[in-house]
Amino acid sequence: ERWGITRLNDPDEREQAEQVVEQVVEQAVEEMAWDRRWAERLATLRAFEARVDLAIGQLSYGDHTLRDVALDARLTEGRLDVTRLHAAQEGSELTLQGWLEVHAETLSGDVNAQLAAVDLDEALGPLGFETLGTLDGRLQVDLVDGALTLDDTSLDYQAPARSLALHVEADAAELAGTSESGVHLQGDGRYRDEPFAFDLRVGPLLNLDDPDTPYPVQGQVSSRDSFLEVDGTVEQPLAISAVQGAFELSGPDPAQLNRLTGLNLPALPPYSLQGQLQVRDGLIDLNDVTGRVGNSDASGDVRLQLGERNMLWATLHSQQLDLDDLAPLIGAAPATGEGEVASPDQQRQAHEEERQSGVFPDRRWNVQGLRRMDAELRYSASSVSAEDIPLTDVQLDLSLDDGVLTLTPLRVGLGGGEAIAQVRMEAQEEALQGNLELTLSRVDLKAILQKADLAEIAEDTAGTLGGEGQVSFTGDSMAAAMASLDGSLALAMSGGQLHMLVLEGMGLDVGEALLGALADSQEVPMRCAYARLSAAEGMTTLEQLFIDTEDSNITGTGTIDLASEQVALVFEAHAKDFSVLASDSPVKLQGPLDDLGIDVVSRELLARGLLSVLGALVAPPLAILPWIEPGTGENVGPGCQQVMEEFAAEKNDG
Question: Which of 54, 1, 26 shows the shortest CA–CA distance to 126?
Fold first, then answer.
């Protein structure tokens, strides 16, 4: 009665048949896999003959009800012929016909079905399946020597609870490079409201004789302008238990795949990658990956673990990194070079930035995305291309754990020296909270000037830069983070020159007026320079500025409001020989960051408190010497060490 077997007169035969059916159904539900034991169990049915002619107006089972149930079938000598199977249920309808034959070690068959809005939840709910959705269309299943394929099949699948809609056309086809028969699958759909399409040739969808035999799979899956080419094999296609083979992945921006895949890939320029793909037990391995992201090359290995919380491991290397390709990571649109085409999102972002007033991008960061995925990344680049910055190489170790991102450390080669940063960013709140510690040591000024197209000045200039800083910030964009900046930064330079052309190269069109006011010259050799800045909620104060030249010392003070991007700085020259300077009037640098202006002002226009700060000559601290020595600056006349010794001697003499 449990299985509907009620007309077997022999109790032993009835029990044996019931056990066969029960074993078949239970294994199908639990494993969704086939092997030779199936054929052996089903072969028992060859001992039975049956004829079923059934018509029921209404059939209830559990909480489900079927209408117009009809079955016309015959079982004889191991062959089941179904002339007609029909059932309807509240707008859905199924009609099926075909045959299934049990051989000694395999099965054969041919089944045709018409489905009209078949509710799979209602049909398969009693077997433990839920939220499966509905199925429409026609289905033709061929089973030849244990291999199941589809032909002349057209199905529409709707699963709103899974945010999935799918249309598939399936026909029998030969596989390229093999003599096997397989299935050509074409179709499209939407998943999480993202469109996708596929054109694949695969091996048999099911092999009763040998379920462990990998099935070939060849073709393309696409979503918008992103494409995945595959040429490999898949084990147990109905369960997709394992996949391996070659792949090619390309698109305008990896972040466009996030809604479709549920991952948290970063926004980057157009990319094209290829390598070896292996999927097994929830692990996706991309091995021997090579390709390009924007103008940068990339190679290495990537592993992704899918689950309730996805995890990414990657070891990647670039021979040549274009720094502009990383611009999207801070909320800016990358520039597109020759052969590059920006994605629609990046094009819109670039247009927004053109209209944006100010220096810091105000595009919101994907803070929530940092909470959805964990990652461990090791990256290095042998060479770096960066406009106006002489970067040489990059190394970083990145960790993302439960919304906390750390870089320990980020090392960048800069002008023969290096910059080392320790970064921690927490994304548990709506706004990102970050801390940065930076050390800059022994950077060659000559290399910076050459990179800035100031080779004429660099030829006669030698200097060494260094510094350190610690800052914290809170915000959901670069602009918001800068407006919240707290911390301090100290910079020092030994040797070098203060030159009018340098200031003009920085966008200061009145550089001649600045130098004329401060030094009465267009080219001023420097022995030592030091600046210390502090920031509180984006308001940055120049606490100390000291520049020692052959003829004078230059001091300065003022503020830089990072929220409004407004500058108000004042500089003053203190002559060592008062006959040297044409003027002792202070100089004011003011205006927005992207359009600064310089003016010579009278003392009467400046606050007394400000002038008292300007008038103070304070030597740099001894702590700056490890940042800048040994360096090229000390080989071209006096540097910071000599200047500090002179200050100490003057103090002792005083």
Answer: 26
Sequence-ordered strand ranges (E) for 432-462: 432-444
Rg (Cα) of the chain, in Å, rounded?
Answer: 37
Q: Are 428 and 421 in contact (CB under 8 A)?
A: no
Burial annotation 620-640 (CB, 10 A radius, 16+ → b, else e): beeebbebbbebbbbebebbb
Amino acid occupying residue 104: A
Q: Which of 493, 459, 530 is nearest to 639 (CA)?
A: 493
CA atoms of 400 and 378, how far apart (whole Å): 12
- Per-residue tokens: 599: 């003016």
Structure confidence by residue, pLDDT tens digits, 144-175: 877 788 999 999 999 998 899 999 999 988 87
Amino acid at 378: R
Cis peptide before 334 (omega within 30 of 0): no
Structure confidence by residue, pLDDT tens digits, 186-213: 999 999 899 999 999 988 776 655 656 7
Quote the CA–CA distance of 199 and 193 in Å, as a whole number.
20
Beta-bridge partner residues of 357: none
Cα separation, 279 vs 245, in Å, equals 9
Which residue is listed with tokens 């399409």? 197
CA distance 50 to 390: 85
19 versus 136: the higher-pLDDT residue is 136
CB count within 10 Å of CB 235 equals 18
Peptide bond just before 409 cis, omega within 30 deg: yes
Phi, psi of 199 (to 5 degrees): -145, 95
Tokens of 604: 């009467």
Integer Cα distance of 442 and 629 in angstroms: 7
How many C-beta atoms surround the C-beta of residue 352 within 10 A?
13
